[in-house]
């Protein structure tokens, strides 16, 4: 397999170039290993997996495992060699296309441990793990030779085929998921962005349609909440209940467009906490950005450097801080997308230390490169780096974020892959605020993290699996179906080659964009074989993807990973009033001109509407509430003051007495 | 209030007046000696023996002696009796930087001489301090006397309030002008001036609160700074739909404030979240004062402090956080200072002296007396923590936010805590509480005490060294401090008019023995002699050095430059009509900061342009025209690498 390394660099073909050539002769050599099988088939002892003995505390996976087994092959007993064989025979009768695959001699790396075992997959599921497996004849066998077998990566943040002012990003679901698979990512989670004012459900259906047609790997969807009212609330509810969406993103940036107010955030957070969703937040202070952008343009700075100058790191940190505060008030799990700066990451790690349920997602770009390129003399190159929040000009940022990722303060990694061609970026050639935002990264994500974090010794391979795959699966409530190599899990696997070195360049990448922000970077570590849905999609540098093969994976609400703590806290957080006697002293006269803060969003906010406005006080000494109150909607009932506690518990007390 | 002098009586009964001895003997030689007049402060600071003297004095419970002029000096006393000449002998002068022993002579409300063996005219009134500490009078940076609230007025007007301040050793107050939204700042300012001029007993100055934002406000701010001696403005991040400003507005206000050279003060609480929480709490049936603290959690305060620090950093504007009530807010300030932000934090008497556990009192009136915003933290370790930060310099100044309401006024919110008028007492107790919590416990020394109660405030608000220091030429606002006096704070004996004192029953050590304001003795032997209307408005100039030296240096550095690039000559994508309107500032129409006709020159504005066009031309910029022949020749900007 070593010879493949050299081949991969051959840039002679235009398509997925670097994966193109080497393996014409390879298929034949595979067959030889059939011999190994026969022996195995005869051995009847120590069959399947003593997997449970190996890994402690994954009870969840065991229960989950039974589901698919029952569906596909009821005969698979946990230890039953005979059953195994019969089952094998039965299934052999089926179409040859049912992908049976055996990986021999690999070192399985999960987020908790690594161990040597063989893996047998069938119909896109992992059926057996262990030594000396009994498998049906004729299965394709991959000899791993002790290389690591890890769960396929989950890219938790992509924007494929995102519409932007009448055009779309250059990487559609086919191109994007192909790039993902080439990099060892076997599942992507894309963001549905409904235009403000349009239906979430329609946008969701639209995205589903695009992705079902084209995606080459499994996918799931986040839905962005770009405006907030009663109908959006209902749609969110039905998306959670019926459509398999459990994460929703809100924007604190993009003033007058996507941005929501603090009160709206509070309402959304409260609502999602109730429904078991995950709140994702694009954290930047949009108001200040708008001011800064105006200032930059006024100063005559129109190039991409204006983008980073108008979005200083502090604004990101500020918004993260605010989001953490609101989440903590509403007892809602928070997920911060695109952690781009040290200070934002610091806020997250501080919040975690204080016990907040918050997850941070650095992206490939922030882990791999920095924002010094915004000052590039090459406009197109500088513009290629434009994303929000911007890459930090501080060159120590990537290292710092990798460290926090290794220490567990940041939990997951995405790519925020959202590529535009130079022509599209050039919409903003005279005004940086018009440059469409987004960088590439879906293909480079796994290798880059391996290179920056594992080869440098910051994290071990288990942590690598956790942050590239397992944690994401847990947050989305897909664990252990995804994010783990276990019996019953999906057969999304990678054989990882720790020694391969390759240089990233736009000439060989799978994205359609002309620029790669990691251009020229040499990375150690790459996927050797990628198996998605039990099929080999990358082998010997050759990528074989099927557009439309990707399935939508529904996510259910209340993921344990986030909600166990939240639920426990909810039980504790009951507030109690102090029972007091009636106040019987004199009361001053007052006017309502400076009233008790009726919230502005009362008219539009959905959570408020059915609830009585308790801020409205009907208190008046004149006996005519309308006279002293502000103009109020007629339907609001005025609560008669002073009637609440007639016979207080503990008897009436004179509450004006000293102490 | 008739009980005005009561607690002083108790003090004097504690140490009865009779053991007063005549110390004339000490005086006489001084009058004769003609050398070493006005003070060499540094060399004067040799203290060992004296300190020991002082301590023995105290053990004898010697009283300060005030001596009227004797007939002998009649000759020199040609002036009007009323020109207050005052000599304080044998005091240990405590400034924020050092302590030394010297005599102080003042005349016409100004300190004229400091030193040993001063030559003074005859007929001066002399106070013998016997080595006690003489400090600059306290400056209470935050009061709200006579504040209107929904047709009610805070229980202490300028007379009552300043009287209470003087009784506690505070000789200057800075009150907040709170214009109702829609009312002009200037007319509100005039209103407050009128109230204060007629009633205040000590010098005062005014902060202006910005409760709304439009072009007119900006002009008024300029006028106030230039012609009316105001250099600080408060913005609210709380009180949704009443006083609250949006982040964008705050940004603009801060930019204006920086250009004017004033201080941006901020009431830091996230009003949006507070409003939501209030609604939620009321929904749960919690209507008592405990709902106030439950709906204003500490985090919400810290969040707003963090946000205002961010905005201040962006605008390069000095920030002053009023009412630091919680540990986490104080932490945010301390962190921001470590990062280099010019930010000041003001804990108040209440947050330094008590905590929020009282909100759960069964006595409604008592619980309501603690209602203020941000609320007192229910965490009982908060006062200690804030005192520590005050001692180490992370927090710099102390106010009282004195704005008490009597129980009948509070009862407006008897069925709904959101209606309870907010404000606590504290102007009278401020100095003693800090002395007791910080100096007695050894957290800070007396110099730092002077710094946090007076000097820092004077520096920040550009009153230094007229106020906040004992030096020749400074105002004769002095306090002779007795570190040993003990008293129990009680509503029965305080000078405020309200029925509750939030420090009720707190025993504090340390209090003023003599208070001198404008060169006149206001408090002596427990007797308070105040004159209504004697307080003067003290005008303050913009650009205080203490604050703006750093700001100025930074604004010189902060110039940003664009990257000169060639013209983009590649293909450009068609754009559909629905633009992604991220940029245009919504408040641009109303925002004064963005108007081209700025009277103050915007130094951030760069005139750099190769085409010869200047920014000041005010012509709509056409970007494609800017760089026709870039330096270094035209580059093909689409080429790789």
UniProtKB/TrEMBL annotation, chain B:
Residues of the Amidohydrolase-related domain: 133-521
Subcellular localization, as worded in the UniProt entry: Cytoplasm
**One Gene Ontology term of the molecular function aspect:** hydrolase activity, acting on carbon-nitrogen (but not peptide) bonds
Which top-level group of life is the source organism from? Eukaryota
Gene3D superfamilies with a match to the protein in the record: Metal-dependent hydrolases, Urease, subunit C, domain 1
Q: Which GO terms describe its cellular component?
A: cytoplasm; plasma membrane bounded cell projection
Keywords from the UniProt entry: Cytoplasm, Developmental protein, Differentiation, Neurogenesis, Phosphoprotein
* Annotated stretches, region: Disordered: 581-641
Where composition is biased (Polar residues), the residues are: 581-612
**Pfam families to which the protein is assigned, alphabetical:** Amidohydro_1
BP-aspect Gene Ontology terms: cell differentiation; nervous system development
Spell out the family assignment given in the record's similarity comment.
Belongs to the metallo-dependent hydrolases superfamily. Hydantoinase/dihydropyrimidinase family.
Its recorded name reads Dihydropyrimidinase-related protein 2
Q: Which organism is it from?
A: Oryzias latipes (Japanese rice fish)
Q: What is the lineage of its organism?
A: Eukaryota, Metazoa, Chordata, Craniata, Vertebrata
